[in-house]
Write a structure and sequence with these properties.
The protein is mainly β. 5% of the residues lie in helices and 35% in strands. It has one domain: Sandwich (Lipoxygenase-1), CATH 2.60.60.30. The strands form two sheets. The chain has a seven-stranded mixed beta sheet with strand order 1-11-10-3-8-7-6, with no helix packed on it. The protein has a six-stranded antiparallel beta sheet with strand order 2-13-12-9-4-5. Strand 10 and strand 11 form a beta hairpin.
Length: 232
Amino acid sequence: MGIDYTKRPKAQPPQPPAQPPAPGHGQQPPAQPVSLSKITLTKSAPSISLSKQGAATGQVRVNLSWTANSSGGGFFRKAKGIDLDLACLWEFTDGSKGIVQALGNSFRAPRDGEPIIYLDGDDRSGAGGENMYIDLAATNRIRRILIFAYIYEGTPNWASANGVVTLSPVSGPQIEVRLDEADQSAISCAIALLENRGGELVINREVRYIRGAQDKIDEAYGWGMNWRGARK
């Protein structure tokens, strides 16, 4: 938008003002402010340090939301749509390891005492999503946590599910990982890996689709657990 020089006070010295460049001749739009309320991890910028963001305190909420049904047809014409489950593989510094998920009622870790990780329920609609909480006050006990999702019910259609995981620390910006790639033969997706690197908590975007269930995720990341069937 140009400047209206007719409103200039008459007392100003009669010097001709510099004219703005004509549109289309190198004029740049005004810079937009950078939003610090949310950071999206991408292929080109896949990692962020919670410690350096000042966000490695309190509980971080991990939310998975998705579109259970789509009016666009295809696989989603089925009334039930798709049901994604949020879960994680965990490993603590004492060597203990396990899984947090609704399947098998494994809602917390560790099972005894105050939980470091817990899942607050099982959502089937995708609208409110599912929430997992990680207590970052226990950073010295955490070695690594792999956050993943799997299709509990419905035909694999990751592209239409529009899945997104949002981590909300007590302080600092939200961290978003979008499931913006797809493998229609996969029923699981490793989403983000939280690691303790010498006391520094780092989150890395994975978005790695896996053709198999929890045991195949374990195999891909070398967790080394024994698996058996379970139901909700």
